[in-house]
Amino acid sequence: LTSQLTIQEQALEKMLKELETEPDSRLEAIHNWLCQQTDKDLLTGILKEDRTLKGAEAYCIQKAYEIRNGNGAMASHITVFNWVREYYMLDELPTDKPEIQATIKSDYINQKIQRPTPVETKNNNEIDLFEGEDF
Fold it and tell me: Out of the domains of life, which is the source (predicted)?
């Protein structure tokens, strides 16, 4: 049966199977864009065993991380879909993934919580209605 299907049909079938196991709106957006593509090299890339929609998403996230400005990154859909194309067209996937590191800067993390001690002040003009009562 596989030999009778075109490359495009095989690629679509592979992506649909992945979406069935992991439905996700971002993956569906990538899938919908890929469904409209007719480039045979791209479709052949989709059929590679080590290529998945989830992998394409991770590749795009890594690319966005690389171009970030401060704490955030923004990329147009055109850029993202170019990254998706790039991911599927790569001969080999990058093996050295730099770890995304977060640093927490706070002097308060290791400090003990100190509760303020109540200070009793008594004004001679005040009357304590509950003086001597235990609650």
Answer: Bacteria
